[in-house]
Amino acid sequence: MSRPAGNPSYAAELGAAKKAVALAARLCQTVQQEIVQSDIQSKADKTPVTVADYGSQVLVSLVLNMEVTSGSFSMVAEEDSEDLRKDGAEEILERITDLVNKTLAEDGSYTTFYYLRKLSSLQLIPGSPRVVHLADIGF
Predict the structure, then answer these.
(1) Residue 74's beta-bridge partner residues?
(2) Which residues contact 124 (CB under 8 A, 6 or more apart)?
(3) Which residues of the chain have pLDDT under 70?
(4) Cα(13)–Cα(120) distance, integer angstroms
Protein backbone atom coordinates (compact mmCIF):
# COMPACT_ATOMS: atom_id res chain seq x y z
CA MET A 1 0.00 0.00 0.00
CA SER A 2 2.80 2.42 -0.75
CA ARG A 3 1.95 3.53 -4.27
CA PRO A 4 1.81 7.17 -5.37
CA ALA A 5 -1.49 8.99 -4.86
CA GLY A 6 -2.01 9.36 -8.63
CA ASN A 7 -2.06 5.61 -9.19
CA PRO A 8 -5.61 4.22 -9.70
CA SER A 9 -4.87 1.12 -7.64
CA TYR A 10 -3.83 3.38 -4.75
CA ALA A 11 -7.35 4.81 -4.67
CA ALA A 12 -8.78 1.28 -4.52
CA GLU A 13 -6.39 0.32 -1.73
CA LEU A 14 -7.21 3.49 0.19
CA GLY A 15 -10.93 2.80 -0.21
CA ALA A 16 -10.48 -0.75 1.07
CA ALA A 17 -8.44 0.48 4.04
CA LYS A 18 -11.12 3.05 4.93
CA LYS A 19 -13.81 0.38 4.66
CA ALA A 20 -11.82 -2.00 6.88
CA VAL A 21 -11.28 0.66 9.54
CA ALA A 22 -14.94 1.71 9.46
CA LEU A 23 -16.10 -1.88 9.99
CA ALA A 24 -13.57 -2.41 12.79
CA ALA A 25 -14.70 0.80 14.48
CA ARG A 26 -18.33 -0.29 14.22
CA LEU A 27 -17.50 -3.61 15.89
CA CYS A 28 -15.62 -1.81 18.69
CA GLN A 29 -18.58 0.53 19.22
CA THR A 30 -20.88 -2.47 19.55
CA VAL A 31 -18.63 -3.98 22.22
CA GLN A 32 -18.38 -0.61 23.98
CA GLN A 33 -22.18 -0.20 24.02
CA GLU A 34 -22.58 -3.69 25.46
CA ILE A 35 -20.11 -2.86 28.23
CA VAL A 36 -21.95 0.37 29.09
CA GLN A 37 -25.37 -1.30 29.00
CA SER A 38 -24.27 -4.13 31.26
CA ASP A 39 -22.46 -1.73 33.61
CA ILE A 40 -19.23 -3.71 33.35
CA GLN A 41 -16.25 -1.55 34.24
CA SER A 42 -13.58 -4.18 33.66
CA LYS A 43 -13.06 -7.90 33.75
CA ALA A 44 -10.05 -9.70 35.15
CA ASP A 45 -9.47 -11.45 31.82
CA LYS A 46 -10.20 -8.27 29.79
CA THR A 47 -12.59 -10.28 27.62
CA PRO A 48 -14.56 -7.33 26.12
CA VAL A 49 -11.38 -5.54 25.08
CA THR A 50 -9.84 -8.73 23.71
CA VAL A 51 -12.98 -9.58 21.74
CA ALA A 52 -12.98 -6.10 20.20
CA ASP A 53 -9.28 -6.36 19.34
CA TYR A 54 -9.56 -9.78 17.74
CA GLY A 55 -12.78 -8.86 15.94
CA SER A 56 -11.18 -5.72 14.53
CA GLN A 57 -8.17 -7.70 13.34
CA VAL A 58 -10.43 -10.21 11.61
CA LEU A 59 -12.44 -7.49 9.86
CA VAL A 60 -9.39 -5.53 8.71
CA SER A 61 -7.64 -8.63 7.39
CA LEU A 62 -10.82 -9.94 5.77
CA VAL A 63 -11.60 -6.70 3.92
CA LEU A 64 -8.01 -6.14 2.78
CA ASN A 65 -7.76 -9.73 1.61
CA MET A 66 -10.99 -9.52 -0.38
CA GLU A 67 -10.49 -6.06 -1.84
CA VAL A 68 -6.75 -5.57 -2.28
CA THR A 69 -4.82 -8.82 -2.55
CA SER A 70 -4.88 -11.53 -5.15
CA GLY A 71 -3.04 -14.23 -3.23
CA SER A 72 -1.97 -15.06 0.26
CA PHE A 73 -2.03 -12.17 2.67
CA SER A 74 -0.24 -11.59 5.96
CA MET A 75 -0.44 -8.73 8.41
CA VAL A 76 1.14 -8.00 11.76
CA ALA A 77 -1.54 -8.00 14.46
CA GLU A 78 -1.65 -6.63 18.00
CA GLU A 79 -3.27 -9.56 19.76
CA ASP A 80 -1.49 -12.86 20.26
CA SER A 81 -3.61 -15.74 18.96
CA GLU A 82 -2.14 -18.27 21.36
CA ASP A 83 -4.98 -17.73 23.86
CA LEU A 84 -7.51 -18.64 21.16
CA ARG A 85 -5.88 -22.04 20.78
CA LYS A 86 -6.24 -23.00 24.44
CA ASP A 87 -8.91 -25.28 25.85
CA GLY A 88 -11.93 -23.25 26.86
CA ALA A 89 -11.46 -20.61 24.16
CA GLU A 90 -14.61 -21.70 22.31
CA GLU A 91 -16.79 -19.06 24.00
CA ILE A 92 -14.54 -16.15 23.06
CA LEU A 93 -14.12 -17.53 19.52
CA GLU A 94 -17.88 -17.78 19.17
CA ARG A 95 -18.27 -14.21 20.44
CA ILE A 96 -15.67 -12.92 17.98
CA THR A 97 -17.33 -14.79 15.11
CA ASP A 98 -20.78 -13.50 16.06
CA LEU A 99 -19.57 -9.90 16.28
CA VAL A 100 -17.78 -10.08 12.94
CA ASN A 101 -20.80 -11.63 11.22
CA LYS A 102 -23.18 -9.09 12.79
CA THR A 103 -20.95 -6.22 11.66
CA LEU A 104 -20.76 -7.58 8.11
CA ALA A 105 -24.52 -8.19 7.99
CA GLU A 106 -25.35 -4.69 9.24
CA ASP A 107 -23.00 -3.13 6.71
CA GLY A 108 -24.48 -5.06 3.81
CA SER A 109 -21.41 -4.68 1.58
CA TYR A 110 -20.56 -8.35 1.63
CA THR A 111 -22.76 -11.33 0.98
CA THR A 112 -23.18 -14.16 3.44
CA PHE A 113 -20.62 -16.04 1.36
CA TYR A 114 -17.97 -14.05 3.19
CA TYR A 115 -19.38 -14.50 6.68
CA LEU A 116 -17.23 -16.53 8.99
CA ARG A 117 -18.25 -19.96 10.08
CA LYS A 118 -18.43 -20.67 13.78
CA LEU A 119 -14.95 -20.94 15.30
CA SER A 120 -13.28 -20.21 11.98
CA SER A 121 -11.52 -17.23 13.52
CA LEU A 122 -8.63 -19.60 14.21
CA GLN A 123 -8.25 -20.07 10.47
CA LEU A 124 -7.55 -16.36 10.23
CA ILE A 125 -4.77 -16.42 12.79
CA PRO A 126 -2.65 -19.56 12.28
CA GLY A 127 1.11 -19.79 12.43
CA SER A 128 3.05 -17.04 14.09
CA PRO A 129 1.17 -15.74 17.12
CA ARG A 130 1.10 -12.13 15.93
CA VAL A 131 0.70 -12.59 12.19
CA VAL A 132 -2.62 -13.09 10.47
CA HIS A 133 -2.44 -15.42 7.46
CA LEU A 134 -5.47 -15.48 5.21
CA ALA A 135 -4.29 -18.11 2.76
CA ASP A 136 -6.16 -20.71 4.81
CA ILE A 137 -9.40 -18.78 5.16
CA GLY A 138 -11.21 -21.64 3.44
CA PHE A 139 -14.34 -19.99 2.03
Answers:
(1) 133
(2) 57, 58, 61, 62, 116, 132, 133, 134, 137
(3) 1-6, 8, 39-48, 70-73, 80, 111-139
(4) 26
